[in-house]
Each structure stands twice: as C-alpha cells, then as structure tokens.
Amino acid sequence: MELSRRDLLTASAIMLMRPMSSISAPLGVGLAAAPSAGGNEPMLLCWNENPYGPSPAARSAIARSIAEGCRYPDDENPRLINSIAEKEGFAPDHIVTGTGSGELLRALGLLAARQQGEIVAAEPTYAELTEYAQHAGATLKLVPVDKQLRHDLSAMHAAVSAKTRAVYICIPNNPTGTMVDSATIAAFVAALPDHVTAIIDEAYMEFVEGTPSSVSLVTGPKRVIVLRTFSKLHGMAGVRCGYGIARPEVIEEISTACMTTPNIFAVRGALASLGDSAFLADCRRRILSSRARVTAELARLHFPYAEPHGNFVFFDTGVPLKQFTEFMRQRNIAVGRRFPPYENWCRVTIGTEPQVDAFLEGVRAFRASLARAA
C-alpha cells in the first residue's frame, strides 16, 4: 500500500504529538494518556496544566490540519462559536473566542484602561488582566482575600467607586483554589452599579464539585462576562483557545479590543475536544482523585492548605517558599512560584498518578527534614 504525502505528514505529526516519556495507558476513548514521573526532564507541577494532554479526538484533528496550515480559519471559527453556543445554551452572538481566555482578559483590561478607569480584584489572584490593564493605564484596587483565602466580596464591593469600570472574580481563584458560592456571586453582581462590568473567570470550573457556574447572570440586567478556556481540563494550554459568554453588545466591545483569532489547529482541536466527553470525564476523575490524595497527605503531615476546587492545591510549607522549591528542585520537581503576601505558601499542580506519587514522597521527605532541623 502506498501512502500519500498527506498520510505521511499526518502519521508523523501524531507521533510527534505523543508524549516523549513512557505512557501508563494507551490512548483510547475515555482513557487519558499519562506521561510517567521518570526521565531527565523536570516534572512540571507549576503551571496548572492538564498533564494528560489533549484528547485523542483533538490530537487527531490537529494532526490532520497540519497539511492545511496554509489556510486561514476565518470560515471555521463560526463553526466553533456555534458549537460552544449550543453547549452553553446561548445564541452564537453571545459568544466570543480568543487565543486562550488570556487574550480576552487582556482585551477587557484594555477596555477599562481606554476609559481611564479602575479595576477591582482580589489579592492574590490571576494577574493577566490586572497587570496588562495597569500597563495600559488603568488603576488597580486590590482587595486581600479573607481568612479562608476566598474572595472578600463585601470588601470588594466597598472598593467600587464611580471610576470603577470592571470587577474581576476568578472562580475558583488562582492561586488559592478557593470558591465563593454562585448565590453569593449573584448577589454581589446585582449590587454593582450599572457602569461596572463583572468579569467572572471560570477557567477551572470543570473541576468544581457541587457549585454551579455563574453563566446564568449573563442574561440579567448587569454587564457580565463569563470566561472559559480549553487550556485546563481540555489539555490544550499550548494550542491557545478560549471563549467568553456575554450579551451581544458586550461581545461586540470585546471583539473590537482583541488583536488575534484562534488558529486553524486551535479551532479544529477545540471542536473535536468538545465532543470527546468520555476523555474529559476520565481526566476529571483522575485529577480529582489525585487532588484528594494530595490534601489527605498534607493534612496528615500538618501542612495547612486552602480548600481546593481547581486542578492545584495551595498550601503552607511553614518556611520561606524558596527553601521548599529548592528542596523539590533537587528531586527534579518544579512547583509554583511566590504569590505575595503568602511568602511561605506553595501552589502545586495535580500531575499524573506517578507524578503525584513522586511529589508526595518529596513532601514526606521535606517534613522529615524539618523535624530533623528542629
């Protein structure tokens, strides 16, 4: 049998897209591939990525698209928008896509800055919107999280002024992983002045148990946009695709501030991933199971942690973070950076089962080292 040039390109691309390290299970419907904890490359438990990667359907769609990388995806992006709209229960004019939800966050920050406005956000929280907006001329009002490391919505509401153009709520919050229930968020949004846009970043919502999305607020009287991404559960952080849900007039405003659109690999990969529900469910199950293992061991070892609702855990190492990160680095494990003012706290991503084994072994060794030094 002779293979065409396209067949050869596709086969080569599929091989290149498979993890270089060993795989604990074959790719298949509902079964996530898991790179092992071994090898010389450090275990990256620092970026909140899904270690199981894109779904088999997404990998196949992206690989088949390599030969058509010369084509613009302008005619295909509406297909993705329609598919997202159907999934979310909105008309297509309520959806905007971006090269990751990060681009949409920047666009929203730019809109606030154009109005010489201020943005109210928690501290610490995901900083892509706030830092970009500040560079563009916006003023920031950062409100410390409460004692449970959750958004202090009462204090955030008190910080809103006539100059406020946006309030940013990251739910679950990054880096703390904490939640505020949807009813409390709804009450907070209802009390906002009409000139304020509520930006609700739900990048990690697929990992939440028992708390519904705030997407229903989009159809209410206030200006609300809910952001989602294919970077987390869908395992496509390197492909870059995200979307926002809002009223059509808000979608139009955001579209004018965006500078790029998803490429052909992102569009086709995202479309395929939306339909690969068995794989997504398997990833979610494995990550939540491993998250429970991590918190159980942290509790046993008496390391305080914030109640996690994402694919990561934020915990108190009991020492300056650099001491812990260096200890883990010597074990070839990369963990999260500093998040002031929580100088002793570490954010660790939930990796594959073997990676979690290695991390927990490292945490136990670290606790033992502290005991010896005491």
What does this structure look like?
The protein is an alpha/beta fold and 374 residues long. It folds into 2 domains: 135 residues, Alpha-Beta Complex (Aspartate Aminotransferase, domain 1); 211 residues, Aspartate Aminotransferase, domain 2 (3-Layer(aba) Sandwich), CATH 3.40.640. It is 40% helix and 14% strand. The strands form 3 sheets. It has a 7-stranded mixed beta sheet with strand order 2-8-7-6-5-3-4, with helices on both faces. It has a two-stranded parallel sheet with strand order 1-10. The chain has a two-stranded antiparallel sheet with strand order 9-11. Strand 3, helix 5 and strand 4 form a beta-alpha-beta unit. Helix 4 runs parallel beside helix 5. The protein is globular, with a radius of gyration of 21 Å.
Radius of gyration over alpha carbons? 21 Å
**Number of contiguous helices:** 12
From the N-terminal CA to the C-terminal CA, the straight-line distance is: 70 Å
* Name given to the CATH architecture of the largest domain: 3-Layer(aba) Sandwich
- Number of β-strand runs: 11
Principal-axis shape equals globular
Low-confidence stretches: 1-37
How much beta, percentage-wise?
5-15%
Number of domains: 2
Proportion of residues in helical segments: 25-40%
CATH superfamily of the largest domain: Type I PLP-dependent aspartate aminotransferase-like (Major domain)
The CATH topology annotation of the largest domain reads as Aspartate Aminotransferase, domain 2
Largest beta sheet: strand ordering: 2-8-7-6-5-3-4
Mean pLDDT: 91
Summarize the main sheet: 7 strands, mixed
SSE order: HEHHEHEHEHEHEEEHHHEHEEH
Look at the structure and give the CATH class of the largest domain.
Answer: Alpha Beta
Provide the structure class.
alpha/beta
